[in-house]
Structures are given as C-alpha cells and as structure tokens.
C-alpha cells in the first residue's frame, strides 16, 4: 500500500498515519518528495484501506496489490487520452456519441447522423449486430448496417461506434468502425475481450449489469494485457432491487473509475434509465460527475423504432440537452462541442 500525503500535510499528521500503520503491523518506508511525502506500507495485513484514506493529511491511498495493473492509476498517473482522427476522448472536451439503438435503414441512419452532428455530437452510434434478450426480436442488419453507419458518419464528419458480439466479426468491424463497443452482456466474454486486445482500435467497454467496479476494471485488463491500451470504460446502469427504471445508474462509479484508473470514462444514460424523460437529467449528472464521454440514443421516429424507441431522445430533446450539457461542462471546467446553431452565433 502506498500512502501519498497532501502537500500541506503537517509533520504531526504524517506521524499520526505512520503510528497507525505500525500499530496495524506494517513496516513503513518514508520518502519525502519535492511536493509530497509518500509512505510505503509493507505487509500482508487485511485492513480496510478507507480507514487510512480518511486520516488527516492523506491525499490518496494506493493499494498496489489491486488485481488489475495496466488499468490502474498506479501504472499510469496521467489520464489516458484516446485520439481518433481529430477527436480526443479523455481530454477537456466531453465527447458526445449519439444515434439510434440499431441501424434500421440507410435513410434512417443518414437522417439521424445529420441531426446529431448538427447538435454537436462527434461520434455516431448504432448497432448492426444486436444482443437482444429475445431471439424473436430484430437482430440487426449485420454488415449492411455497418456500411450505412460508415457512409452516414463520413458524410457528416463523425466517427462510428458499434457493438461487436463475437471474435469472428472483428475483421469486419475493423473495416467500418472507429471504436468497437463491447456490450454489457459481453463484458465478461473473455475470448472476445482477449481478441479485441490484439487489435489497434479503441474499445468502448460497457459495465455488465451485475458487474462490480473491480470486475469491470479486470475486463479492461483483459483487453489491455493483449496490447491494446485504448479502452474507454462505460457506466450504463446496473441491476438493483429497484424496478422503477430499466437499470440503476451508478453515478458514483464515474469518480470511482477515475480514481482507480487512468482510462477515460463514458456514461450511457439511455440504457441506464430506459425512459426518454429520464435521460437528460442523468446525462447532465454524468457530466457534472466527471464523465469524459456520453453515449445517447436518438431517433427521428422513436414511436416506430425497431429497438429501444422509449429511451431514444427526439431530435429537439437532444438539441436541448446538448445546450444544457455545454453549460454544465463549463461549470466543471470542461466543454461540449458547439452545434451548428451555436457555431454561427
Ligand atoms: C447498446 O448500446 O446498444 C446496448 C445494447 O447497450 P448495453 O450493452 O449497455 O445494454
Ligand atoms: Mn439500445
């Protein structure tokens, strides 16, 4: 365990922490840096590290025994910035990825791409291979869907993110998309994780509906251990005892991921809530909580959508949300790209 003291920590506070750790049975190695005093606590004692974190003068406590290494903040202190063409995920800008749940036709995806790009989105989302709970539900257009996404994105200067469901689809995805999405249901599909770890395209990794934060970071570790370090974590709601909405959005996962890992963090308020009227407040909260990107479902005719119409924003709702997000982003020292309307103002 490594304890980093605040710059302003007093000698008395430092001694207090050392005394407590010695009482708990640790050997302490103290080093005084230019700014921070760092205490290395050596020993295999099962303690609640939060007790140390709460001591006066402690800035942070790093468990160097975390089971994930490459994904952890102790491996890389600075936040990872993923640059794809002229879009940077993990920088000052909160990148908005938007589009339909699933690609239904060329016209549909063309129309939605125009809408979301006009409002300031940078990435077009859309499923071509859909993981549906029922085998009788629409399963996606397959390669045709990927083609339409690419064409629509290129026309409107957007990137493409789409969900890959199995290793054999990866070569196809490499041809058409900029970011490969691993869906919540596949977060622990270890073969798939290993295979996307061997490519050099960014991966958006959704948290499983019943996965802990540590399990999510271990899923990221699977990808990273294959050599692909461009992973974006995505909180999309977990299953709890609360049945009112589709899932329970774990807002606190955002600052926790950011504390434990250097990877950028995205939030998906659409799948988290499952209802259009709840998407905007959760999206706003996610930006306030430090999300680096948002994944939002938008549809030009949600009443007739083949999938997830109820949670898809109408174009005007999306436009309004983007406006609000810009205000919130500014308040937390971030920014959201202007839409066409703002740009000409
Ligand atoms: C999706 O983004 O289209 C999707 C299926 O999400 P999730 O895997 O989070 O359910
Ligand atoms: Mn969906």
Structural overview:
It is a single chain. The protein contains 12 helices and 14 strands. The model has no long low-confidence stretch (mean pLDDT 95). The chain has helices spanning 11-23, 49-53, 106-118, 143-155, 170-176, 190-196, 213-225, 253-260, 269-273, 276-288, 315-331, 340-344, and strands at 2-5, 27-32, 37-42, 58-62, 82-84, 87-89, 95-99, 123-125, 159-163, 179-182, 203-206, 231-235, 265-267, 293-297. The strands form 3 sheets. Strands 7-8-9-10-11-12-13-14 form an 8-stranded parallel barrel, surrounded by 7 helices. The chain is α/β, with parallel strands linked by helices and 345 residues long. The protein has 2 domains: 2-62, Phospho-2-dehydro-3-deoxyheptonate aldolase, domain 1 (Alpha-Beta Plaits, 2-Layer Sandwich); 82-343, TIM Barrel (Alpha-Beta Barrel), CATH 3.20.20. Helix 5 links the parallel strand 9 and strand 10 (179-182). The radius of gyration is 22 Å and the shape is elongated. The structure holds phosphoenolpyruvate and manganese (II) ion. Manganese (II) ion binds next to loops.
